[in-house]
Amino acid sequence: MAAAESPLLQVYAPPEQIFVRGEGCWIWDEKGDKYLDCIAGIAVNALGHAPPVLVKALTEQAGKLWHTSNMFKIKGQTTLAEKYTRDSFADVVFFTNSGTEAIEGCLKLTRKYHSANGHPERIDIIGFQGSFHGRSYAAINAAGNPSYVEGFGPRLPGFLQAQFGDLESVKKLVGPTTAGIIIEPVQGEGGVRAAPPGFLKALRELADKEGFLLIFDEVQSGAGRTGKMWAHQWDGVTPDAMAVAKGVGGGFPMGAFLATREAAKGMVKGVHGTTFGGNPLAMAVGNACYDELSKPEFLERVNATANFLGQALEGVKDRHPNLVVEVRGKGLLRGLKLKIDPKEIQGKLRDRKVLVGVAGDNVLRMAPPLVITEAEISQAIDAIDAVLAAQMAEAGA
User: Does this model's pTM top 0.90?
Assistant: First the structure.
């Protein structure tokens, strides 16, 4: 008898495990099997699974007020926006439900800025090959990945792609219709690639010279993931606008876009909005999460753990030179570029009760909770070593 077709739209291909409970860096499936989570919901569960401080904030708010919409003031928005602007380049914040929505807001803000300045012809957004900015129509056009835009009709006008890390390829695309540049300081989906030293600074100087805006997509690289609150802070460079999400909610769906007041000058009453974005539940969790992430001792610990992970992965590369090309990434967003299909390694690690991700360019991706310990990292590294050693043995046989 044929199995019944799923009522779910089949755009995912998940493994058989169904997870029902999590604690810290560990997650249990419905069979009771325990797994070490080194992907954290794709860099989302920054404080681990079910962190008490976020559970407390969410449950307390859930007993008070869930939703009003932005027809009314939401106190938690002002509180969190004050924290974000206090500690960053930004003057203003708009809260969203997701990273994709935050990206959309940045793109709209950028074009609206030039329109407000009397230059509506400046619509071109320069992105980078290998980038990922979400799944909405503008986001997939900004990234330009053929596999994501194919079959969805004509490409949106005003989106161009340069080579990641190649300033000359950017300059060739700059012209009188350029509105802005959008870049991930550390590419996630595109292969866990950090921008080369000096590249973000060069883009900042080019934007200032040519009069367009610089957008940073920190949806995956932000919220302490690289050891600073925002990855671009390592380069001493500030954008005009920035999209954030994933880790900022610690597992609760929320995002935001941040901007200077000048860059946001065109975003006046009525030109943008959201029903759910910045709701009281999200703001309760977002405030509690930011308070934890912004503690100096927390980020110090992330940096120490990240150094340990980086060295451990370099050791994996040294021990398996026939399979590992290089170690990539920054902080606790790391990747191993492999000579073989990373999905095969991912599956075999899952069999050993370790969860990792994959990314473009044949990369095995690790983005564990920021609270992961050195002992837990060592356990994951042992599993990776064992899987790669078995792979070599099979190849030799």
Answer: yes
